[in-house]
Amino acid sequence: MSQDAAALSASELIKLYRKKKLSPVETIKAVFSRIHAHNEAVNAFTLLDEEGALAMARASEARWQKGEPRGLLDGVPVTIKDLILTKGWPTLRGSRAIDRSGPWDVDAPAAAALKRHGSIVIGKTTTPEFGWKGVTDNGLNGVTRNPWNTQLTPGGSSGGAAAACALGMGALHIGTDGGGSIRIPAGFTGIFGIKPSFGRVPAWPLSPFGTVAHVGPMTRTVTDAALMLNVIGEYDPRDWHALPENHLDYLEDINAGVEGLRVAYSADLGYVEVDPEIAAGVRSAVGVLEELGARVEEIPAPFPPSGPIFLVHWACGAAQLMKLFTPEQRTFIDPGLLEMAAYGDQVSLSDYLDAVAARGALGEGMQGFHDRFDLLVTPSLPIPAFSVGMEKPESMAADRWADWTPFTYPFNLTQQPACSVPCGFTSQGLPMGMQIVGAKYADARVLKAARAFESARPFEMPEAPRVPSGA
After folding, report:
1. How many C-alpha atoms does 174 have within 13 Å on its Cβ side?
2. What is the pTM of this model?
3. Alpha-carbon span 137 to 334, nearest angstrom
4. 135-177: pLDDT as tens digits
5. C-alpha dihedral sign at 167, 212, 139, 114
6. Please, which residues have CB within 8 angstroms of residue 8's CB and are 6 or more apart in sequence?
7. Which of 24, 33, 340, 383 has its CA 20 to 30 A from that of 68?
8. Helices 50-66 and 10-18 sit at what angle, rounded to 10 degrees?
9. Using an 8 Å Cβ cutoff, are 161 and 177 in contact?
10. Active site amino acids
11. Domains of the chain in sequence order
């Protein structure tokens, strides 16, 4: 076990607190030591509260000394993405169009649950404006960078959470995922991230992008994600889409393995051009699942391309969002988001309803697919991380961010649980991710499969940001 408290998992921290071998105060000091040393290189945070975190840590320490911890996460340092309301702190959503003065007097469900269980919220992490794209930069906070190479993007829109997670700047991190925004940065930075089934984690207020958007954990271990989901998955009546309380412990049988599971493997969904190193890396990872007892069948294409369906949903959400702002406020907003909204304004009601119907057909098809297969495995992303400050890689013929994330957004349309598992590195030392998708509401199965892979191939995190010479 690492001697650096900032490098410990949430599960390890709780065990040490219980044995009185570590104090939450020591943990918070170690985490902020990491932040002071590394955050300038990656720009993961929009807000930090060291004084407040230390005060919460001292209160947590007192509870542990009495043997009376609060909930499941007492004394564990967590971060919250700057799209999620957090009482007492501004939630600016990466936008200069938001009034900083608030009022900021309410916690969203995930933030409330984390606090209810005694976790120590250390700060808020960066996002592109309103989480609209697959990289993390905005006019308010600047550019967020990848810990494995600071000249590259960590992905987005939960890029700040991913960078903080990889570097031990907090043990648990809340991300959001409307088209891949947990899994994209998890894939680019080599951490674990899961988009739970829609409604499993209550979300209020509803994302401007509607029912494609999920809230979920970003962690350094699969077990920590399961622990976190036990907390943030608690029912909250403010979200009318929220699933009823299921009282399921995601840690139970987390080590059950994959023996006998029917796993479909699609290398390219039948139409995606995948970087050869990533294709080979994911195929090798699938081989590990086979070695662990899964019955793997390679399939060509589980469904037809769904990009146009997603684009209509995403663009119409952007168009509705922009209606909240005056013409003067819109002058501050990311031009790419304005372009997306302009496209959404041109979508007719008939075309929108066609997209809704096509989405339904896609979801029905995947329901039937999982009658035959327990899990679907794909690459998380077809490419490694690319240069910061760009919506898309220069070398790729793409119009928008969704063009280089074809493996992630289909499962926002279908609302299935899907995770990105780090599965190795390219020859340039950049992380690769394997995506594991389960049937709707089969979140526990996805976590068990990811944990089985992690047990066979433990994840590797960077000790510090890697800054290229001359950068």
Report:
1. 33
2. 0.98
3. 10
4. 999 999 999 999 999 999 999 999 999 999 999 999 999 999 9
5. negative
6. 1, 2, 16, 27, 171
7. 33
8. 50
9. no
10. 81, 157, 181
11. 5-456 (3.90.1300.10)
